[in-house]
Structures are given as C-alpha cells and as structure tokens.
C-alpha cells in the first residue's frame, strides 16, 4: 500500500509543478498584451500628430494658391482700370481691387502664422518620433524577454508532461482514476492527515478512519472534501536500524 501511495504522491508532485509553472507563466501573455497596448497608444499618438501636420501643410498649400490667384486677379483688374470709360465703372473696379489687396494682406498674415506653426509642429514631431523610437526599442526588448520566458515555461511544462506519462504508468489503475477525477476539480487531490485533521479542508476525520490510515499506510477518501487522504507517517522515511 505504501508503494502505491508513494507512486501517487510522485505523480501529484509533477502535477503541482506543472500547475505552478502554468500559473507563473499565465502572467506573461497579459504583460505582453499590456506592452503591445502601450506601444499601440504611443504609435497612434504619433500617427495623429503626423495627420495634423499633413493637414496643416494642405492648408498652407491651399492658402498659397489662394494668394497667388488673388494677386493674378488684382493684376488683371489693374490692367483694366485704364480701359474704364466712366468714373462709376472706374471707382467700382478700384474698390474691388482694394478689397482684394486687403484680403491678400489678411491671407499673407495667416500664411505667416501657419508657417510658424508648421515649423513648431515639425520640431515637435521629430522630438516625439525620437521618444517613440526609444520607447519602442525598450518595449520591444521587454516583450522579447517575456516571450522568451513564456517559451521556457512551455518547454518545461512539455518536459514535465512527458515525465508525467512515465510516472502515471506506475500508479495503481483504480487509484489513478480516482485521482484524475478529483484533480480536474481541485489540486492537490492527494492530501495528508495530521493529528486527525485533513490538510485539504482542515476538518477532522473520524478517529477510526485516521487509525486505519496509520495502520495500513494506504489511502482513503476524506468524508468532508472527498480528496484522497493518507496518514503523513506513510510517506516519512523509516529511520535506518542502528547496528
């Protein structure tokens, strides 16, 4: 009975190690996703700044074209002034020329201000792109590190699962079936009984059952939590006889 218990305990040790590795590794995908989100937010901010810069450049180009068109219009109107035969027509055209020139002055001021803003925006973009490149390098390095750890954990789990196959082959078939059924719901599925108390649920087991476990060095089922139980003495090494 003791050998069957030892085989099952060894199997559970493997399962506990696998569970511990998986729990530790579970945090890596979440950390990677958070870093990717952070990088995505930073990238979106840069793209938004670039889009704003492109829009300002489009405005500047349109303003420059409007100024050119208005200047051409003024030149044509000025050339027509001498052709006007009546004072009324001359005054009307002169008034239109004056309005167009004032509009050109306003647009020129707008163009100067927009050009100034564009210069500042380009410098800001350069600074932000440099910051983003540094951030991207740091986050990419961290993500690579986490992915490496995740890969190592997966490799360890795979190795342990291979070891588990060999260990489970040495466990009593009936005991293994019971263990697997419990393990799917809770781990550890195999727990010791210390001083009459189940270490899985911290409830006392019947004294007769505890005595039986200590005598047989085998296993039974906890009446409270339904885990497989054993007396801890069963797995303790027997002191070597003194000569």
Helix amount: over 70%
Largest sheet: 4 strands, mixed
Radius of gyration in whole Å, from Cα? 41 Å
- Point out poorly predicted stretches: 239-243
Overall form = rod-shaped
Estimate the mean pLDDT confidence: 89
Instruction: Write the element-wise H/E pattern from the N-terminal end onward.
Output: HHHEEHEE
Terminal CA distance: 28 Å
**In what order do the strands lie side by side in the largest sheet?**
2-1-4-3
Give a description of the structure.
- The chain is mostly helical and 243 residues long.
- The protein is built from four helices and four strands.
- It has helices at residues 2-81, 87-168, 173-183, 207-216; strands at 190-194, 197-198, 220-221, 228-231.
- The chain has a four-stranded mixed sheet.
- Helix 1 packs antiparallel against helix 2.
- The protein is rod-shaped, with a radius of gyration of 41 Å.
- The relative contact order is 0.14.
- Mean pLDDT is 89; it is low at 239-243.
Topology:
Layout: H1 2-81, H2 87-168, H3 173-183, E1 190-194, E2 197-198, H4 207-216, E3 220-221, E4 228-231
Parallel strand pairs: 1-4
Antiparallel strand pairs: 1-2, 3-4
